[in-house]
Design a protein that fits this description.
Blueprint: H1 2-20, H2 28-48, H3 56-83, H4 87-98, H5 106-114, H6 119-146, H7 153-161, H8 164-172, H9 180-190, H10 193-204, H11 213-237, H12 242-252, H13 258-266, H14 271-296
Length: 297
């Protein structure tokens, strides 16, 4: 586990240094992310998800991320007055805690801490949880606070159904044959997932000062500590198998989703706060997520 975490950290630093030294074009992170999303993640899903045994555990992996978003919403509403949040800060705090980086960081960390067999379970959590939340809840939350028009239901459905990892997940769940020729293709296409995803994240890191500090500290505590505890409790109540519980807790403990932070900055919704959640949350999670893995073991 230590060697795997060191590899992830080294790749993260490499990506950060490549950006600071100007060794790659400005859009390099976007290109790498697109390759990971369109090629590596679908190949990983098609290779590993058909080997899953459908059962109650998969349902838990869908329930937990939506429950986390609901809990985050309620808690943020409760602390709005004590923390003195305005509407934009409240929306930023909600999205930063409800949406985790369950793919670009979640997949490599789950693989490093729990083994490759955790990846199909992490994919279910990510695609039917985090991605759907990003595609449905985030546009409405941002539209409400910026007076922009939320996307229509047909546009959301089209975006979801044509997203390559979602298409791959739907195909992988069908009872189709899996010839050895395709298995070799999936293995080759999925192998760059971890290094490319982590380097791309390193390219995106911006270590801006976390302001306002008390809002940032509360959000980070909620995202990296309180919500994983809630995920563990929900998984236990629902009777999830131990390994499924471990995946659900680790995925819920991931830092703020980079795409969510980018959306908040694009909509000018507490941009500095959003950037701090993404950058500092990512670095701190490299300690907290392994700690959760140790506790769960």
């Amino acid at each position: 586990m230590i060697s795997a975490l060191f590899t992830l950290f080294a790749l993260l630093v490499a990506g950060y240094l490549l950006r600071r030294l100007g060794r790659l074009p400005d859009d390099a992170a976007d290109v790498l992310n697109r390759f990971v999303i369109d090629i590596c993640v679908p190949a990983t899903i098609l290779r590993l998800v058909p080997k899953l045994t459908l059962g109650r555990g998969l349902v838990v992996l869908v329930i937990v991320p939506w429950a986390m978003a609901g809990i985050a919403y309620v808690i943020v509403r409760l602390v709005t007055r004590p923390l003195g949040l305005d509407r934009t800060q409240r929306t930023a705090l909600f999205l930063a805690t409800a949406l985790g980086n369950t793919s670009f960081i979640g997949f490599p960390l789950c693989s490093a801490l729990l083994g490759e067999r955790s990846l199909p379970l992490a994919a279910v959590y990510d695609q039917l949880g985090s991605f759907l939340l990003l595609s449905t809840v985030a546009p409405f939350a941002l539209g409400a606070v910026t007076a922009g028009a939320p996307p229509r239901a047909s546009e959301i459905a089209r975006r979801v159904l044509l997203f390559p990892p979602m298409l791959a997940l739907l195909v992988a769940l069908l009872p189709l044959p899996h010839p050895a020729l395709l298995e070799a293709l999936y293995a080759a296409a999925s192998s760059p997932l971890v290094p490319l995803a982590v380097v791309a994240v390193g390219l995106k890191i911006r270590l801006t000062p976390p302001r306002p500090l008390r809002v940032f500290a509360f959000g980070l505590t909620l995202k990296l500590l309180l919500l994983p505890i809630a995920a563990w409790a929900i998984a236990r109540v629902l009777g999830a198998p131990v390994f499924v519980t471990q995946v659900a807790v680790l995925e819920s403990a991931m830092p703020t989703m980079i795409t969510a932070g980018a959306l908040m900055m694009a909509y000018r919704v507490a941009g500095e706060l959003a950037a701090a959640f993404v950058g500092w949350g990512l670095l701190i999670s490299l300690v907290t997520v392994p700690a959760w893995s140790f506790v769960l073991r």
